[in-house]
Specification:
With about 110 residues, the chain is α+β, with helices and mostly antiparallel strands. It contains 2 helices and 5 strands; from the N terminus they run ααβββββ. Helix content is about 30%, strand content about 20%.
Length: about 110
């Protein structure tokens, strides 16, 4: 599975069509119907929620992730059955509700 920016993809399809429309004068209506069908298919695809519920899945041990405790969002890691914050945002005992992976390129050098 690949994740795409669906709006950008639809824009790309439509702008590409505009640049070659003159080549398809005899079949212009048919091509427009195909493009519209493609765009409808894209819109019908499910959206992806990047947040993962802790009740469903936990990150790899000591992987730094974004976490949400219902009040704040901050970075932390999970190790030995408990969450540890990378800063002072987290107070032990407050449950972490969900988490999200962070791209390695977004982490500080000492966090990788």
């Amino acid at each position: 599975m690949r994740l795409i920016d669906a709006d950008a993809f639809k824009y790309s399809i439509r702008s590409s069509w505009e640049s070659v429309r003159h080549l398809f004068r005899d079949n212009e209506k048919w091509v427009e119907e195909v493009i519209e069908g493609l765009c409808e298919d894209i819109d019908e695809q499910p959206t992806v929620n990047p947040w993962i519920l802790c009740s469903e899945w936990l990150p790899d041990e000591e992987e730094i992730v974004l976490v949400d405790d219902g009040a704040d969002i901050f970075t932390a890691w999970y190790s030995n059955g408990k969450w540890e914050s990378t800063d002072s945002m987290y107070f032990p005992g407050i449950p972490i509700l969900k988490w999200m992976p962070i791209l390695k390129s977004c982490l500080k050098e000492d966090e990788v």
